[in-house]
Structures are given as C-alpha cells and as structure tokens.
Amino acid sequence: MKSMRVRDQEIIQKRVVETITENGLKNTTKFIKDKKLKELKEFQKRHKSLIRLQDKIDSLKKDFEIAEKRLAEDVNSFNHQNFKNSKSSTSKYDSNCTTKVGLKYSYRGGYDYNESGRVDYPGGVSIVYTPDNCLYAEIRDELALETMSSDFNAKELIAKFVKRFGKWINA
After folding, report:
1. Listed residue (122, 76, 67) closest to 101, CA to CA
2. Is the pTM of this model over 0.90?
3. What was the pLDDT predicted at 1?
4. Which of 5, 21, 123, 163 has its CA 20 to 30 A from that of 59?
5. Distance (Å, rounded) from C-alpha 24 to C-alpha 22?
C-alpha cells in the first residue's frame, strides 16, 4: 500500500477537527437551549447591565475630567488676579496648577525636590510661597557688602534683610 502524503494528512486532519468542532457546537447549543436557557438569559441580562454600568462610569469619568480641569484653571486665574509674578500655570496634559505664590492644585498629589531632597505632597488645594531663585543671590551680594567691615550684628542684619527683601508680593 502506498503511503499517504503529508499534505493529504493535513487535509484529513483539518476536516476531522472542523467536523468535531461543528458537532460539538451544535450539541452544546442544543443542550443549553433545551435545558439551560434560563441561565443563559440571566447571564445575557447581567452582561447588558454591565455594559450600561460601564457607559455610566465612562460618562462620569468625562464629567470628572472636565470639572477637574475647570478647577485647575480657576485656581490659576485666582493666582494671576491676586499675586503679581506668581508664575502660575496649568498643564494641558494633566489637571494641575503650579505656582510659586498663591494656591497650588493637584488632584492626586505628587512630589517635588528641594535642597533637602524629595518632598511628597498630598493632593488637593494648598497654599504655597516660594521665593524666586534670584533672591538668594541678591541677599548674598547685599550681605557681602554689609559685612565688609568686621562690625556687624547678626540679629540686626537678619531683621534688616527680612524687612528689605521680605515684602509680600500681592498685586
């Protein structure tokens, strides 16, 4: 007897699997529709309920994102109206409002770095004041000029510089 070609084996194998799959689906469908139709309808009903719930969640999420962005923009406007040089801004990628002076807003919180290292901060609206970096240079230069002579009182210098450089910067 002549041996079967590989391609013939593949064709026969494919047709056997297709027939078994067809028969299996037909028998499974008959069993469920004849004996388990109630359960099938209940599962379909629950699935439709999940779809409606997901649609509500998606709608609420869109409403949330709009409200969150609006809050960040309102905080930003507040800073610009009440503090000159606030350098307040919002990002088009997230709903945060960052500033050096005034109110800072972040829904989720985050972290920042300062001279001491990483600082974590919680979400929400918080009051901030961070002097410009140039303030350090101005104080350093004035301090050098004031202390050229050896006669100075440290407490008096601190009070004098706080008064001179510590003017609150509202509009």
Report:
1. 76
2. no
3. 62
4. 123
5. 5
